[in-house]
# Entry
Amino acid sequence: MTALANLRLPTRRYALGAGFTTEALKFFKYWIAAALVLAFALPFAVAQWNDITISAWYYAANAGKWFTAFVSGGFLFVLVPNMIATGLTRRELAVSMGLFGVLWSLALGAIACAGLLAERASYAAMGWSHGIDANDAIAPIGSAAETAAFGAHYPLLYLVYFAAGALVGAASYRWESAGWLLLVPVLPVVFSLDNALYDTKPVGPGWAGFLGGLIGDWGRGLIIALLLATAAALAAAAYRILIDIPLRAKKA
# Structure
């Protein structure tokens, strides 16, 4: 990554945000490739014994949401002291992380959507059903257009998980052992909206999405608006923590 000293002061926050994205994708490229290979190979192995009715890629893409939250929280927790020690201001770090979140979510969202469409084509070629486990019943994802619409929501969902991870990561650095407790209010909100959007349980603790059943009939448009508002609120909260965060001296 380009050294801070070689970046133009007015624009370095944006260069760093793009740099974080590029370096993160390069660092995790083998993880992403492994998820791609496993998600596409597993159905062919399972088909030797059972009929294929459920999308394997749906679970891989859902796992990517947790992965995104861990990436954002981990990056922030590690980068706060290092970046500020090299001369980056807290506001610049916050803006850099915001751009990182948008670009990362778009990149992983594009991979998730493309993977879902490719999987639909492979399932159709093999004569398999392409569906998801929705409320204890197999629900077909639908036509190619419906599959594309289904996958088009992934960038927004990844952005929400990124903002949630960033908030918990910043809080964990700011308040040390107590910051992670923000998971208690954040997780049910994020998980429930995810649950309501697809009318199914996302990959993870089912209890955390208990509100999804209550808001699932509000309509997809309203749920998307709530996801956008949630991403903005989480990002704003993480920003407020970051710009006022103290640096702790290293312990000997």
